[in-house]
Each structure stands twice: as C-alpha cells, then as structure tokens.
Amino acid sequence: MASLKGKDILHGNQFSKKDIDAILKVASEFEKELKKKDGLPLLKGKIIATLFYEPSTRTRLSFEAAMQRLGGGVISMGSVESSSVAKGETLADTIRTVSQYADVIVLRHPRTGSAREAADATPIPVINAGDGAGQHPTQALLDVYTIHKELGSLKNLTISLVGDLKNGRTVHALVELLSLFQSKLYFVSPGLLRMPEEITANLKGKGMKIVETEDMMEAANASHLIYMTRIQKERFADLSEYEKVKGSFIIDQTFLNKLKKKITILHPLPRVDEIHPDVDTYSGAAYFRQMRNGVFVRMALLAMIFGKR
After folding, report:
1. Shared fold status for 12-136+294-305 and 137-290
2. DSSP string across 129-161
3. pTM confidence score
4. Bridge partners, residue 184, by sequence
5. Contact 275/228 with Cβ under 8 angstroms?
6. The pLDDT of residue 1 is above 50
7. Pairing of strands 158-162, 73-76
C-alpha cells in the first residue's frame, strides 16, 4: 500500500494511481467500520488545527468530524478578524505559531499558492483545503471515491464538468486524478470561464480526450456523470461580468426529462441556482451522498498521514 506518512497534501498532481487506490481502500474500510461503531481511536492524543481564511461548511466540519471519529482533538483559529491576522501577522508566522500546538494543519486561504507557502513554513503536515482558484485536493479525492461508489469503476468513463472551470479549484484538482484513469472529459462553461489553457494542454499531453463546449445537454447525453459547479461571484473583480454569466447552466426537472438516459450528478456544494431543489429526489442525484463521503476520505488521509494505515 502507498505511504502518505508525514506528507503534505497540496495538489491533485501529487497522487499516483497507487496512492488513490490505497486511499479509497482505507476510506471504504472506515465507512464500513462506522456502520458498526461511532469511531476508531487511532489518533488519540493527536491534534488537528483548522485555519480557514475563507468561509467553509462541509470541508471544515468534515475534517473536524474525521479527526474526532479517529479519537483526536481539534483546535481552530476561529474568524480571521478575531486572530492575529487582523493585526497584520503573515501567513508564515501564523503557521509557525499554530505548529507549536497541533500535529497537522488544514488550511483554506484566498491566495493561490498559499498552501505551498504554509507547508514550507512548518515541519508538520499541511493539508490544502482550498487555495484561492488553485487546488482543493481532498475534495477531488472524495469526488473519485464517490464516482467509484456510484458507478462501480473509475475506468473508461465520460464525465462532464460544468460551470466555473476557470476559477474552480475543485475541478482543477479533480481532472488531475481523472487523468490517471484516462477518462474522456467534456468541459462545459461560458467562454469567460473556460478551463485554464495550461490545464487543458497538460491533460491533452497525457492523451486525454477533451471536448470544450457550451452545450450542456449534448455533453450530458454523452456522459456517465455530470459534475456541476457554482459560478463563483466572489472571484469576479467586476460584478457586471458575473451578471453576464450567472445562471448559464441549470439542471432542473425539465432538463432531466429531456435527457436520453439516467445520469449521475455530483456537485461540491454550496449550490446557488445551478441545481434546482426538485432534482434532489432524482435517483442519480448523488451530491448529498458525495458530501457524506468526505468524512471517510478525510479519515483515511489523516490516518495515513500519521502512519496508522
């Protein structure tokens, strides 16, 4: 089994197929164990610090739940306004400080590259929970875990990624993992929010089949799975540009009725208007199951980082 002991988790491209297979195996074991008991005391005495400079619900709470299910403790910086960041403390100094109190740090920060900066400032492991429009590798891992559970395999799949592909750190990390399984990918977005060219070129260089389009129905009908993302208002310096593209792609019951086949739907959440609530009862709507899978995958990562699996 691959070893993640002592490693930082910063980018989707750091994982091999062997790593992913190992993480998914451990996550599956933990999922089964939690059906029998409340937790596993593998990390008793260990402490996780969650530092979130941007809002979070699922990522933060699932990491904290994962650590507690493993018997460890949790400390948190709280709001940025209530910390020394408000006094002008640098990220590196904050990380050096928190390293004195914790055994692993989970960081979300608005600046791309911040996770790498944090990792360079401390000898303890740093987990990137989102660095601006950069990467969100643990989301990508729970996504592939969900895809495997829902579809039974990660091989020979056609997947549509829809929405804000320019700024979407979740899709930036996910395509790195999918490239290991030679999936065919449809990139569906407004022209303003296309997947960054360097990412698309890198994928094509690996032999990936990429189709870029603004026709979500065409892409969905050709795909096993559609991965919706939110048009991120907070990433727009000019809100008039946001107004031009908001609501570009919406899945509702009318859309589902026009599909030629059943399709699995994922979304990293939160959603705004891109998936109508009337879709929630559709059997292929897997985004709430996807959300729960985050606990199992993050338990697996924490246990493996500490060498307990």
Report:
1. yes
2. EEETTS--HHHHHHHHHHHHHHHS-SSS-EEEE
3. 0.93
4. 158, 209
5. yes
6. no
7. unpaired
Q: What pLDDT, on the 0 to 100 scale, is given for residue 248? A: 84
Residue 218: is its pLDDT beyond 60? yes
How is 210-231 classified by DSSP, letter by letter?
EEEES-HHHHHHT-SEEEE---
Q: What is the CATH class of 12-136+294-305?
A: alpha beta
Alpha helices of the chain — where are they, by DSSP H?
Answer: 17-34, 58-69, 91-98, 114-120, 137-151, 169-178, 197-205, 216-221, 239-245, 253-258, 287-305
Q: Give the mean pLDDT of the chain.
A: 94
Q: Which two tokens stand for residue 273?
A: 């208007």
Q: How many whole angstroms separate alpha carbon 77 and alpha carbon 143? A: 27
Please report, for the chain, the start and end positions of each structural domain, with discontinuous segments joined by +.
Answer: 12-136+294-305, 137-290
Question: Residue 277 corresponds to which tokens in the numbers above?
Answer: 């609530």
CA dihedral 168, 172, 173, 175 (to 10 degrees): 130
Which of the 8 DSSP states describes residue 209? E
CATH placement of domain 137-290: 3.40.50.1370
